[in-house]
Amino acid sequence: MNSSHAGTVALRTLGLLILLNSDAWATSSKRYRRHDHDIRDPDMPAQMVRPQHHGNTKAMWNSLNLTVHIIPHTHNDLGWLKTVDECYYGANNSIQHAAVQYILETVVAALRANPQRKFSYAEQGFFQRWWHEADDLTQSAVRKLVRTGQLSFIGGGWAQHDEGCPYFTTMVDQMTLGHRFLHEQFGYRVKTGWQIDPFGHSSTNARISAQMGYDAQYFARIDYQDRDKRGIVLLQQLLCGTG
After folding, report:
1. Alpha-carbon dihedral of residues 210, 213, 216, 222, nearest 10 degrees?
2. pLDDT digits (tens, 9 = 90+) for 65-122
3. What is the mean pLDDT of residues 176-188?
4. What percent of the chain has pLDDT over 70?
């Protein structure tokens, strides 16, 4: 099977990124047929099709060979609904229940309790604040978790920046602020871009991410028309270069 036709579905809920990678989307054309009343885009080639399960979703999923990757991770906005201080310390819960310091404390405790567990942390604005408040024993434990690969860092920026409003220098500066800290404290290089919540994506950010040397870039909130079209033509998986 040509890997460029492999279907990838990403679901995000409760701090878990669930990737469903199927090698059964690109099967024989006998299993699929074109629905002219469903496909309105004249640029779509005639072989673009939908599964012939006639609304039987259970039968469709049962026919697929899936590998499920469950990735525990953070998505902690630096100041959403509440101020950064309120989000970090858990103040003003009449607006929202958010206390990032306890997320970090419980994650570190859970990782230390079971070496099979792994966790990916994103927002350096919160992590660095927590790090500077942690005692020497906790910092030593975290260094070991990073060294053994139980705790990894994704994105690596101070925050998960918007891609439409900021100028490119702002994007670079806030990423530098996070990446430099991780390099100085852990000798760590972030390998995965993580833009799962910006409301839209820009070519500027894509170019910056490619030049940063990421091995992969995860993102969400693509235009629904683009998403639906890719689902039909079996091109949910993207292979990007640096150009």
Report:
1. -20
2. 778 888 899 999 988 899 999 999 999 989 888 899 999 999 999 999 999 999 999 9
3. 97
4. 71
Residues 44, 62: Cα–Cα separation, whole Å: 28
Checking if the pLDDT of 212 tops 70, the result is yes
Beta pairing partners, 19: 10, 69
In whole angstroms, give the CA distance from residue 237 to residue 243. 18
Mark whether 197 is an active-site residue.
yes
CA separation for the pair 193, 153 (Å, rounded): 10
Of residues 18, 17, 19, the one with CA closest to residue 237: 19
Of 36, 38, 197, 226, the active-site residue reads 197
**Maximal C-alpha separation, the chain:** 65
Identify whether the C-beta of residue 73 lies closer than 8 Å to the C-beta of residue 120.
yes
CA–CA gap between residue 117 and residue 197 (Å, rounded): 25
> Is 152 within 8 Å of 120 (Cβ atoms)?
yes
* Top mean-pLDDT range of 13-22, 201-210, 218-227: 201-210
State residue 80's pLDDT score. Answer: 86
Contact present, 121 and 146 (Cβ < 8 Å): no
Closest residue by Cα to residue 54 from 69, 71, 33 = 33
Tokens 């500077």 locate to 132
- The whole-number pLDDT of residue 48 equals 42
